[in-house]
């Protein structure tokens, strides 16, 4: 179905409903029906894990989307970009079937299913389902952010030395070393650092006020798409670490009153160049 067949509000309602149902189906599969043997292998490095459940989750999500919106483009972490015959409808989905796969493998809380839909190039709908805490975060552009039914809105900005800052590390060992050195220099200047292991949920944690900011270099769009919309609809500023428009290569998300200060500090510490 082409976006123009529905008015914008109807389209957003439909995409939000599909995203919620796809995330719920994936959660049933990976969490409620978690098998003893996950079928673990590695991808870009020995620490970059993938399981058969990542692949099965992506198939489930793709099938749920295709049942309602067969003409949409879908880009997923495991199967890449699939463009339907005819070139697509103007809607493009970003799917991380399990964000935080290392957490998932260890059965450590914090893995999630992240699904976003972009309409004519603008991120419009995001859902991040966190099965271990039984919470689902969501946002529709212009309609605010929610954790289940509870609206999320940032409170007052903490001063920099009182900021709890989340970050993450890539899979390349050299880059991890450099990222660790930046984090070590940041640590004495802020309240503390958190490395929870799942970017989409880190972004939701900014929205929910569980951390004051999040930065990371070298993400992919599927890690980021849903969570960044949720953070921004909750009132956070999203961008690159050096203050440019949001891009997965170097992400910073913070209270709008703290963003520039953190950006200056992280640039000084060399965070964008790791
Ligand atoms: C990873 C997680 C992790 C982040 C990595 C991501 P994946 O996603 O979000 O927290 O530090 O950069 O690649 O590989 O588990 O989907």
Report the bound ligands by name, code or SMILES: D-MYO-inositol-1-phosphate
When the domains are counted, the total is 2
Give the beta-strand count: 15
Label the overall shape. Answer: globular
Helix content: 25-40%
Number of helices: 7
**Which CATH C-level class of the largest domain is it?**
Alpha Beta
Average pLDDT over all residues? 95
Question: What string gives the helices and strands in order?
Answer: HEEHEEEHEEEEEEHEHEHEEH
Which class do the helix and strand fractions yield? Answer: alpha+beta
Distance between the termini: 43 Å
CATH superfamily of the largest domain: Fructose-1,6-Bisphosphatase, subunit A, domain 1
The CATH architecture of the largest domain would be 2-Layer Sandwich
Q: For the report, how would you describe the main beta sheet?
A: 8 strands, mixed
What's the alpha carbon Rg, rounded to whole Å? Answer: 18 Å
- CATH fold annotation of the largest domain: Fructose-1,6-Bisphosphatase, Chain A, domain 1
Low-confidence regions: none
- Strand order across the largest sheet: 4-3-5-6-7-8-9-10
């Amino acid at each position: 179905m082409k976006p123009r067949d529905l008015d914008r509000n109807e389209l957003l309602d439909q995409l939000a409903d599909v995203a919620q149902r796809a995330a719920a189906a994936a959660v049933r599969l990976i969490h409620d029906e978690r098998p003893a043997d996950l079928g673990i292998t590695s991808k870009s490095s020995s620490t970059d894990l993938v399981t058969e459940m990542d692949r099965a989750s992506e198939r489930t999500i793709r099938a749920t989307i295709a049942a309602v919106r067969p003409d949409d483009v879908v880009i997923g972490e495991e199967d890449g970009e699939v463009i339907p015959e005819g070139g697509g409808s103007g809607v493009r989905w970003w799917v991380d079937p399990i964000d935080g796969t290392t957490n998932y493998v260890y059965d450590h809380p914090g893995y999630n299913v992240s699904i976003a839909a972009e309409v004519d190039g603008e991120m419009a709908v995001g859902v991040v389902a966190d099965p271990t805490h039984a919470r689902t975060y969501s946002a529709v552009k212009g309609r605010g952010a929610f954790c289940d039914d509870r609206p999320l809105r940032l409170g007052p900005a903490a001063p920099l030395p009182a900021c709890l800052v989340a970050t993450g590390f890539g899979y390349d060992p050299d880059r991890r070393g450099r990222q660790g050195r930046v984090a070590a220099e940041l640590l004495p200047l802020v309240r503390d650092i958190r490395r929870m292991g799942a970017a989409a949920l880190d972004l939701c944690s900014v929205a929910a006020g569980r951390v004051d900011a999040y930065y990371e270099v070298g993400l992919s769009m599927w890690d980021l798409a849903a969570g960044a919309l949720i953070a921004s609809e909750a009132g956070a500023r999203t961008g690159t670490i050096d203050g440019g428009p949001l891009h997965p290569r170097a992400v910073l998300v913070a209270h709008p009153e703290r963003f520039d200060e953190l950006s200056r500090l992280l640039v000084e510490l060399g965070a964008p160049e790791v």
